[in-house]
Amino acid sequence: MYISDIKDNQLIIKPQKKFTDGKRLLRFPLVKHNISIEQLANIYNKLKLCKDVIVDGKIVLVGYEYFNLIDYFQEKVRMGCRRYNQKYTPLEKFEYHKNQFKKPYTYKNVMDQIFKFKLCSELDPHIVITIINSREILGQKIEIKRFLDMSIGRGSQLMACMMKDIEYVGTDPCEAAFPHTQMIEKYCRYMGSTSAVQLFKCGFETNWPWDGRKFDVMFSSPPYFDVEIYEDNETQSIAKNKTVDEWLDNFLFVCMNKIITMIHSGGLIMMNIDNPTNGHYDYVGPLIKKKFEGADYIGSIFIRKGFNIHTWKVN
């Protein structure tokens, strides 16, 4: 059985769908059809106890076992995302090539082959929990109680904040992801979270309601211009800006200036953003070099190759 919805804090469950009959692949092997509800809860509770730490500007894993909880709720959205150097999404590739997959058709073997496709990036909740748990980041003392997220994405920051009962406010215009983001909130409530949460389906740069109370941190994984396309929608930043320079000037820099006004003095702005590995664009360089009034760049935290959290301190 899998969770199809949650109403009045009660699980609405349905039978899981098999992705294979043993002889052929029938459909994409979604996570939610291949782990039990009990396994999901166990993984959730284990992740809440994450003990990863930041040492010398690097995330150090402490007994961490990989499992992307977010994919239980958002996997179709992620697999429906097309990277800039790919003609098809992973879902489309699976349909076109499923007759070429190698047996045995076990979940692990099939997923190992799918992971060879060019998948869109992910920010695992354990990274966010590590940030929340930290009392010092890049030499700056911090205690996170109010968390701002300029780009909810698939909801890793939301889930981590709700696991730790941190107040969370986030924005994102993605029509495809938003219902699943709301499902993440409902599941965390079901699992006992008491976080105050506000979700706004809009771009951060737009005029959305903010009550004026300042935040301790803004931590997000913002769009990478046209590197990952989740949907063709006029609300997306890529639809409004046709070049990377326009995107920087009219979106990312605008968001940065707005964020600075929303973070209290001594708070941090943290962005998980990196250039494409093949040099397709350079937006990190201009972002770091830009002098923002009211905030200073203090360095980055290394997650793994191609993944860094660039950080500013608000004055």
Characterization of this structure:
The chain is of the alpha/beta class and 315 residues long. The chain folds into two domains: 2-50 and 65-114, no CATH class; 125-314, Vaccinia Virus protein VP39 (Rossmann fold, 3-Layer(aba) Sandwich). It contains ten helices and 15 strands. The strands form five sheets. Strands 10-9-8-11-13-15-14 form a seven-stranded mixed beta sheet, with helices on both faces. Strands 1-2 form a two-stranded antiparallel ribbon. The longest helix is centred in the last third of the chain and has 19 residues, at 244-262. The protein is globular and about 60 Å long. 34% of the residues are buried. The model has no long low-confidence stretch (mean pLDDT 90).
**If helices are DSSP runs of H or I spanning 4 or more residues, what is the number of helices?**
10
Mean pLDDT score? 90
The termini sit apart by 51 Å
Q: Give the topology string: H per helix, E per strand.
A: EEHEEHEHHHEEEHEHEEEHHEHEE
Taken from the alpha-carbon principal axes, the silhouette is: globular
Query: In percent terms, what proportion of residues is strand?
Result: 15-25%
CATH top level of the largest domain is Alpha Beta
What's the architecture of the largest domain in CATH terms? Answer: 3-Layer(aba) Sandwich
How many structural domains can be distinguished in the coordinates? Answer: 2
By DSSP, the count of extended strands is 15
Helix-residue proportion: 25-40%
Largest beta-sheet details: 7 strands, mixed
Query: What fold name stands as the CATH topology of the largest domain?
Result: Rossmann fold
The side-by-side strand order for the widest beta sheet comes to 10-9-8-11-13-15-14
CATH superfamily of the largest domain: Vaccinia Virus protein VP39
**What class would the helix/strand composition place it in?**
alpha/beta
Q: In angstroms, what is the radius of gyration?
A: 20 Å
Low-confidence stretches: none
